[in-house]
Structures are given as structure tokens and as C-alpha cells.
Amino acid sequence: MKKLLTRSVFTRLLVLLVAVAPIFSACNTENDSVKRAREHEEEYKKIDDTLIQEYFARHNITSSNYQRTEDGIYIVTVKEGTGQKIVAGNKIQVQYIGRYLKKEREDVVFDKSYGNRTICECTEVVVGQNSVIKGWERALLLMKKGDEKRIFVPSYLAYGQFGNTNIPGDEPLQFEMNITKVEFQ
What we know:
This is Peptidyl-prolyl cis-trans isomerase. The chain is α+β, with helices and mostly antiparallel strands.
């Protein structure tokens, strides 16, 4: 009886293992939608970089005027601030104007803090809480109080391939940003 019970448990475990093996093996493979999204992002890294470079050519912005981060954000310093760089957890106030940069909609303002009915005409952000687009999160970590910079954000670090309410998908963006206050935590 004991051998029969052991054999029955062993058989059930073996059947269960055979049944779930495909599930575990699928954990190491990329499903089609994830693969397409990754490929799309890789494609747009090149496209967006070209669009940003074309914008720079139209506006005579040369490589001596900007910094390019590893992830493809371009930063043009208008005025250098002072003090420590912003770090995750800092609460900041930033005045900004967001514009498109593709030639057909170039310089059309899609969002701004000015006139937003706050005393500072700014928006407050706690850096590192993903409350803003990835491009802002990463650029803010390179800034300090008093910085006035223009940042050029590739679409994959903005609203991606699907866009947002008034931002089309695959749209690289530019922002004029002025860091007016930094609360170090």
C-alpha cells in the first residue's frame, strides 16, 4: 500500500511537472508584443536623434552648444545655475514651456507653466517619483537651482509610441526649463 501511494504521488508530480514546464520555459523568452515594442523603441532612437539633429541644423545649434546624454537627451544651457545638483527625492519648482520640434509643427507650444494660476508660474515635482516623463526625470538629475536649459527629449523618453492627450505618438519634444527652487531632502 505504501509503495502504491508513493508511486501515485510520484506519477502526479511527474504529470504536473510536464504540464507546467512550458510555462517556466516561456519566462526566459520575449513575447511578440514586448519584442515589437523593444524593436520600435530601437528604431525611434535613431529617428528621433535625426529629427533633433535636423532641428539643430535649422537653428544653427552646434555640438559645442549642447550636451548629449547616453540615453539620447540633448541639453542646451542658456544660463548656468548654482549650488548642488538635484537628486532623487528633492522637491523642485520649475517654470517651463513645452514645444514640438518636428519641422511641420516646429515651435508650437503644447504645454507651459506660465499662466497656470500659481504665484510662481511653475510646477512642483518631487524628482524620482515618476510623476513626469522619463526625459524630465533624467534631465532634472543633471540640473541645479537657477539653471535655465533647453532639453530635447526623444519620443521614447517622452510619451512613447502611443502619445498622450494632446501629444501624438512617436513625438520628440523640446522644453525650456528654469529651475526656480530646490528643496534638498
